[in-house]
Amino acid sequence: MPARTWVPPGPYDLHRTLCVLQRGPGDPAFAVRGGAVWRACRTPQGPGTLRVAARPADGSVEAEAWGPGADWLLAGLPDLLGESDDPTALTARHRLVHEARRRHPGVRLARTGLVLESLIPSVLEQKVTSDEAYRAWRLLLQRHGEPAPGPWERLRVMPDPRGWALIPSWEWHRAGVDAKRSSAILRAVRAARRMEEAAQMDLADATRRLTAIPGIGPWTAAETLQRTLGAPDAITVGDLHLPKIIGYALTGRRGTTDEEMLELLAPYEGQRHRAARLILLSGHTPPRRAPRFPVGNIARL
């Protein structure tokens, strides 16, 4: 069981940095246990499990890993924890953003270096509620993933590209995934090598690579590359809630459109995703006026 210690270059918040990798409560590939973050994933060297915990005594972070992908995971630990990220690149142009950064100085943008790991659950989140997408991810990993290496038997590693391609149509249906989303995932896994190459590209080229696949648009690409590249400017456009939250937080107005959101975030060009993340952390969200969307379940059809 290889291990590694990393010393953050400044204030550091382990949980808020890595929580963006979790796909809802009960995610079979991610968990927090005893203060440590556990992550099971499929690396270029095979399945691996990573356990990461902060050591308050000396301010360091310790990690252990299991499985064929253990060495790959530990080699990428600094990038995963945000060592290559530069939070000081953002200049706060709004009091709310300044205050959010003051309250959360240890939040960095994680860089996983893996594309399909973030792309597939992002496709599952297209045009449905978060609860529906999380349920689909959970069921697909439980039924078609494999037990993660290491001591925690609950964790699951997602299927490899061939494993995704072999999932029968009725299993997608049972997980509540319609044909449009499952077809997009199947096209992506058939081009898995080309997809994973995007992890070594800049944001613009990586976006073009991902959106060349039918069914993967700017929203899905941004949600993926925020995690794969730790891209500070990968702002999500086309989201149902984000423009409204950004607009309300910065102006107090409701009903902000994507175009208006981009105008508001224009002073943060190059750091728009980071600015949006800080705004979300501020907790300034518009009061709810309508009931939540009902959770659908196409498996019952």
From TrEMBL:
Q: Which reaction does it catalyse?
A: Hydrolysis of alkylated DNA, releasing 3-methyladenine, 3-methylguanine, 7-methylguanine and 7-methyladenine
Would the keyword ATP-binding turn up in this protein's UniProt record? Answer: no
Which Gene Ontology cellular-component terms appear in the entry? cytoplasm; protein-DNA complex
EC number(s) stated in the UniProt entry for this protein: 3.2.2.21
Keywords (alphabetical) are: DNA damage, DNA repair
Q: What is this protein called?
A: DNA-3-methyladenine glycosylase II
Extract one GO BP annotation from the record: base-excision repair, AP site formation
Record keyword Chaperone present? no
User: What is the uppermost EC class here?
Assistant: hydrolase
Q: Which GO terms describe its molecular function?
A: alkylated DNA binding; DNA-3-methyladenine glycosylase activity; DNA-7-methylguanine glycosylase activity
**Gene3D superfamilies linked to this entry:** Hypothetical protein, domain 2
